[in-house]
Amino acid sequence: xxxxxxxxxxxxxxxxxxxxxxxxxxxxxxxxxxxxxxxxxxxxxxxxxxxxxxxxxxxxxxxxxxxxxxxxxxxxxxxxxxxxxxxxxxxxxxxxxxxxxxxxxxxxxxxxxxxxxxxxxxxxxxxxxxxxxxxxxxxxxxxxxxxxxxxxxxxxxxxxxxxxxxx
Amino acid sequence: xxxxxxxxxxxxxxxxxxxxxxxxxxxxxxxxxxxxxxxxxxxxxxxxxxxxxxxxxxxxxxxxxxxxxxxxxxxxxxxxxxxxxxxxxxxxxxxxxxxxxxxxxxxxxxxxxxxxxxxxxxxxxxxxxxxxxxxxxxxxxxxxxxxxxxxxxxxxxxxxxxxxxxx
Lengths: 167, 167
What we know:
The structure is a homodimer.
Chain A: E1 4-10, E2 15-25, E3 28-38, H1 45-63, E4 67-71, H2 79-98, E5 102-106, H3 108-116, H4 123-133, H5 143-158
Parallel strand pairs in A: 1-4, 4-5
Antiparallel strand pairs in A: 1-2, 2-3
């Protein structure tokens, strides 16, 4: 199989996590990069969204992923942040589509299930699973970057064939 | 005073309403244009957001408003549409900021209050007030375009000086 590059995105207004992973063989992955896009409170909502899009476009141009996998907002865990996080998510999805990239969406529960086998696994267990699957000696920091890598690995695993081909 | 041009935006995923108004003198307005940006259900979320941004950029280039006034999402009237509408709103705000335009945000209640003097005025009364303030012989259709004009007029009225200058 050819290498599939995935850009995982954990959306937010103050911090957007990103993680780039190459799927090099069946359930075998290579860590490429990860980090965060940051904006400041005093910049105003529209300006922060403009910064997020600008940095997202830079990421897309630099890494040219095959797919952009974005965490979906499924549970009303925090009603106060639901609108601003959704606004950032809209900008990130739009930037990917306008630039011609495929997008995929996964719920937090799907990501946990996919990486650990448990839909309600705790954060540190998910982070350890990410590090293990990417053959990293330590957990990726900050959390938003690790979360974004989890989404990328989730996409890679979700697209595994249901049955291994007979050889 | 110089003419102030305002682009009012009523965000949505399937339909974004827009309305352009010139404030030509103290509490005197001129209707310039209005309409809707439409996307189709079968286009997928990211693609629909890309279309909304593309058409928003076209509107900004054509009308070059001084301010873009966008309705804010304040009440959880419909939890199901809150995420997609916020995503579209994020794209619209970002497009305005990236293109160098000022943005302003008003809640539905502020818009109603501003146009009718009542924060809970019904839809048809708001539509009639919009038509009256813009010296139009009939109510603007569709509703999303009329709502967008209401937001534009609201911005124009909110920026009235508190006291008329002594002459």
